[in-house]
Amino acid sequence: MHEKVFADPLNEHITTSSFWNDVQELREKIKSYKKFPLYKSFLYLFLLLLPIFAIIYSIDKTAHLFYIIPLLVLGIIWYNMYLQSLQQEIITLLLCERNNFVFNPVKNHVRALKFRYLFPDIFDRGDPKTRYVDNQIWGNGGQKRDISFWSGVFHYETNAQYDENGVERKDFMPGGSVIEKSNLYSLGEAIVTRRLNYHENSDRDEQVFEKQAFIFELGRIMPTSFVLFTHGLKRDLTTESVEFNQKFTIRIHSKSKSADAQTLQALSPSVQIRLVEFAEKFSIDCIAFQHNCMVVLFAETGWKTKFTHFFKTVDIDDRDLQRFDELLNEMIALPVEMRKFLD
Amino acid sequence: MNIWQIILISLVIVIFLYIFIYNKLVTAKQKVNEGWSDVDVQLKRRRDLIPNLVETVKGYAKHEKELLEKVSKERAHALDTDKNDLKELATIESAIGNDINSLLMVAEAYPDLKANESFLKLQENLTETEDQIASSRRIYNANVTSYNTLLQLFPINIIANISGFKESNFFEFKDTKSVPSAKTD
After folding, report:
1. How many helices (H) does chain B have, and how many strands (E)?
2. Cα–Cα distance between A207 and A110 in angstroms, integer?
3. How far apart are the C-alpha atoms of A14 and A35, rounded to whole Å?
4. Alpha-carbon dihedral of residues A165, A171, A173, A176, nearest 10 degrees?
5. Phi and psi for A226 in degrees, rounded to 5?
6. Long-range CB contacts (< 8 A, 24+ apart) of A66-72?
7. Rounded average pLDDT over A118-122
8. Listed residue (B43, B38, B37) closest to B173, CA to CA
9. Residues forming a β-bridge with A297
10. What are the respective helix, strand and coil percentages of chain B, to the nearest 5?
11. CA distance A293 to A325
């Protein structure tokens, strides 16, 4: 039997069994949590600790101020952080299994580096050593499930650095343009990617960022590449909509006049309205239309569970699955609407 | 610093403020005009589709003569209407929108027409155009809101009055039914 092959923006061969071993441990955890729910383990742990704390308290009456309460608070914070991270992985795995997507929870620095070459406007951020992607998903979306996408959480850290003029820059990247050839979604066509000439973005210094990225295959090559940032960079172009210009800053790769016209053609009134509504609904960092891809980078996590109660039941709520579908459809609607005026 | 210097500095500040606010108003007014030109393009596109629609429907639904004539008359009326009279234009355009919807509904009673390829193509184009009209209208009205708000702010309102900037009108349709989408089953 042939395995289903998933399209990958980096042209890697991804099949349903590609990361079988990487998720095996998570599967075991799901099994054990299903047998013994987390709230029970929390309760038992508390019951176990209670007599120990009572003994300490009987020996030293002031112990609660110096040991018991701080230790309890720290323990709860640590355990909560661990659970949050585990919960995200487990829920994403369940989501992928229910939708027949492929999931890889493992940190990957190499892919973050490759993404940086392909989409420098999106992934060329922070200290290069701190960049990695994890919780990656490969799947298909849209009403006919015919639009392939990749999603992952992009991690990076920013440090305050200084440029050649000694001016402190946020997220400063030396060098300027990055040129690299690669294939996108197996189209067999080489593309050249240049980083837009800017050095700043709205990210704060000395911070750790986790931003969810989605990359969709558009099914056609865009006549021109452009990025819509939701933060204040120098803009290349404005549209007729004041509302849209307040929300987005357009940056275009090519400096030709025809690129301006092609960008405006792609950003028809209905596309602008959809983008504005999308940015109102979700916290977006930027949206790029490049070659045959659309890249959406959220300011944090694009999809969060609302109805799943991981503590009680280790399963994903159907309404959350539906919300993920809705999110995918809303993103897919953007290039679909755009195509009407490009074809 | 003597009194003349103070007057001179104040005058320079006032002139710069005037230039700054004037340019801001011009930019906002320009956006309103750009927004309107978008609406105008889409309305023109819809009007251009009407003769084809009328011709196609006429071939199959001869009993709908009255409705067909009404749409053609309204189209002619829209072409003659002064583009600056937005109230009148909005009334005519919403009537055209409603009549186009009625024409498309008529197709339901004529299976041959419903299956006609050029009719389906027209229906698809009209649905798209309606969508673009709605979006352009929203953009235009948002630009008008932003411009009109600017005109009411102090001290912009003083400069706007001096320079002859006037509030723009909104372009609002009344009771437009949505266009039935094309189905090819």
Report:
1. 6, 0
2. 22
3. 32
4. -80
5. -150, 160
6. none
7. 84
8. B43
9. A213, A286
10. 80, 0, 20
11. 19
Amino acid identity, position A107? K
Residue-by-residue DSSP string for A225-280:
-EEEESS----SB--S-HHHHHH-EEEES--SHHHHHHHHHHS-HHHHHHHHHHHH
Dist. CA A81–CA A84, nearest whole Å: 5
Q: Does A272 touch chain B (CB under 8 A)?
A: yes
**Backbone conformation region of residue A145, classed left if phi is above 0, alpha if psi is from -120 to 50, else beta:** left
Distances (CA, A) of B64 to A157, B104, B106, B179: 68, 11, 8, 18
CB contact under 8 A, A270 and B31: no
Both structure tokens of A35: 């047998």
Q: Is some CB atom of chain A closer than 8 A to the CB atom of B42? A: yes
DSSP for residue A67: I
Rounded to whole angstroms, the Cα distance separating B14 from B32 reads 27
Q: Do the Cβ atoms of A253 and A226 come closer than 8 Å?
A: yes
Enumerate the H helices of chain A as residue ranges: 20-35, 38-59, 63, 69-99, 109-118, 120-123, 242-247, 257-266, 269-281, 318-339
Determine the Cα–Cα distance for residues A2 and A144; give it in Å rounded to an integer: 21
How many angstroms separate the CA atoms of A136 and A120, rounded?
19
Nearest CA-CA distance, residue B133 and chain A, Å: 8
Contacting residues of B for A343, CB less than 8 Å apart: none
Q: What confidence tens digit (pLDDT) does each residue in A163-221 have?
A: 455 554 444 443 333 333 334 443 333 344 444 544 444 455 557 888 999 999 887 78
Is residue B31 within 8 A of residue B143, CB to CB? The reply is yes
Question: Which B residues, 117 through 176, put their C-beta within 8 Å of a C-beta on chain A?
Answer: 128, 131-132, 134-136, 138-139, 142-143, 146
| Residue A213 β-bridge partners | A152, A297
Tokens of A218: 């558009």
Helix (H) or strand (E) holding A137: strand A132-141
H or E segment to which residue A151 belongs: strand A147-158
* pLDDT single digits (tens) A256-276: 778 888 888 888 888 899 999
What confidence tens digit (pLDDT) does each residue in A267-306 have? 888 889 999 999 998 888 889 988 888 999 998 877 777 7
Chosen from B135, B140, B145, B149 to mutate, greatest number of chain A CBs within 10 A: B135
> CA-CA distance, A27 to A32, in Å (whole number)?
9
Report whether pLDDT(A238) > 70.
yes
Torsion sign over Cα B117, B120, B122, B128: negative
